[in-house]
Protein: N-acetyltransferase domain-containing protein
Organism: Methylobacterium symbioticum
Amino acid sequence: MILEPVQPFRPSHFRVKFAVAPWERRACAALRRQVFCTEQGLFVEDDRDAIDAQAIPICALSTLAGDADAVVGTVRIHEVAERRGEWWGSRLAVARAFRGTAALGAGLIQVAVSSAHARGCTRFLAHVQERNVPLFQALHWASLDTLVLHGHPHHLMQADLAAYPPMDDPEHGLVTFRRAA
Ligand SMILES: CC(C)(COP(=O)(O)OP(=O)(O)OC[C@H]1O[C@@H](n2cnc3c(N)ncnc32)[C@H](O)[C@@H]1OP(=O)(O)O)[C@@H](O)C(=O)NCCC(=O)NCCS
């Protein structure tokens, strides 16, 4: 009998959608802690803030045999209460092992902006870490200003809503596929 080494399981497609199930929301929070506290050290122990009380969490789910398996990416969106139509995205994070593999960052940004667009967004903004500005520019965002946040250089950026058609069913979301190796 010949025994072949087993390759680690690599999901081929991912669903990006609003995080509605409690386990999805818990996993989004855990991934944020992993990326923004442990990896980047921007916060100590916990990155939650007052915005979480009103923000909508979005998740990227890996799939196993067609079923949702794990949260491998997240972002949150919220509308500014005092300025109707102004929406913000924040805490964009993809698990390290999945970065650059399946356009998860781009998919999360797509669901974030397009779902806000469907909810009456007229201006979508984010504070983007300087190293990620080229990614956002490639995805039709413009830099409006520069500033330092949490001790790191950021750009205030705005999405071109024309590139983000309204998404009416973000609970269903979209699917991204692993790039060919
Ligand atoms: C930034 C981040 C979310 C991107 O996620 P990702 O899933 O790797 O991004 P994608 O695969 O969707 O990238 C889309 C495209 O942008 C490119 N890209 C990704 N990150 C980039 C960067 N920092 N600068 C320039 N291009 C970048 C990719 O190569 C890809 O190009 P392609 O489609 O031509 O191959 C991820 O790197 C991350 O979680 N980083 C740590 C946390 C962080 O920095 N959060 C953002 C705060 S603003």
